[in-house]
Design a protein that fits this description.
Blueprint lengths: L9 H12 L5 E5 L6 H13 L13 H7 L6 E4 L10 H9 L12 E6 L5 H12 L5 E7 L7 H4 L3 E4 L5 H14 L7 H10 L4 H9 L3 H14 L5 H14 L4 H21 L11 H4 L4 H26 L4 H15 L4
Parallel strand pairs: 1-4, 1-5, 2-3, 3-4
The chain binds zinc ion.
Amino acid sequence: MAFATLVGQSDLKARLGSILAQEPGHAYVLTGPTGIGKTTFATEFAQALLCHQPSEAGACGICSACHHFTHQAHPDFRTLLLDSKDKVIKVERVRQTVQADIALRPQFGQRKVYLIDADYLNEQGQNTLLKSLEEPPQFVTFVLMTQGPEKLLPTILSRLTVLPLRRYPTADVIEILHRELDLQNLPRPDEATLGFYARYANGIPGTALNLITSSWFADLRQETIEFYSQIGRLSRAQILTTGYTFFDSNRARADVLLDIIGSLTRDQLVLAVTNDSRHLTNSDQEQRLTLPQTKQRHDAVPGLIRATAAIATARRGLKLNASFEGLACQLLLTLRKELIHA
Ligand SMILES: [Zn+2]
């Protein structure tokens, strides 16, 4: 399969096409958040670099190099990815896979390709790789992947051509979900549900797919919606007991809980300000989130803005490992107060 057949990312596809149309350089890095499709595009790009007759659409898919590649048996393709038992790619593996190997000529074609997940190289690993990146043999091309260029040492980054992946429009995420669910032989939810996941995942197909196939997300979302819809009616004592118990029981997934609450608050704010339901994330909850009267909607806006800020504060606290009880109670009290109109 050629990368041109993948959904979306037209800028990236055009750049890969023009790289293949000329003599490819020595080192590239694909950037973008986890789940955006870096590995998919990087693998397609690697196959095209090794293909005997690539076009601007990517690998031909039929030559002997492509045949070996798709059977994971191409002798000139090396990968340096995280071993599931490790937290980082060990320096020793960088030495063995890259340093000790780089001078050896390709066995099959004109080129060797190293595919490296640079997010799992620590500083020592990056410095070891740097030696090979500085003066690679003319037949070597590196394809790195990272969530963001700032994760790389400047000395590494300066040797790479950056190829960014962008967040997908909702329609593209839905198309990717169709393809992936079919490919994995999984049942397809209805279109409205797929639409929710695509919007909720904010343009990242991998996130949407993980949530759809998870055993817990749909339940957590439903429980959170129930909780959210009564939060303004709870007494202060109830919010600190029932409310906190709900948060505490989902402590391990507090980031997702905050994301769900954030998406509900955001939708309510959109409805309160515009009274337009076309851009809701939780469009299946429109009735619940709509305030019937204009005055009520206007009155709710300042509180919803403060609630949004409080959710952001809680998220930061979570990242900084602040006391869970402290940040949860603070947020719950704020939500109760600010969502009183909502
Ligand atoms: Zn080919």
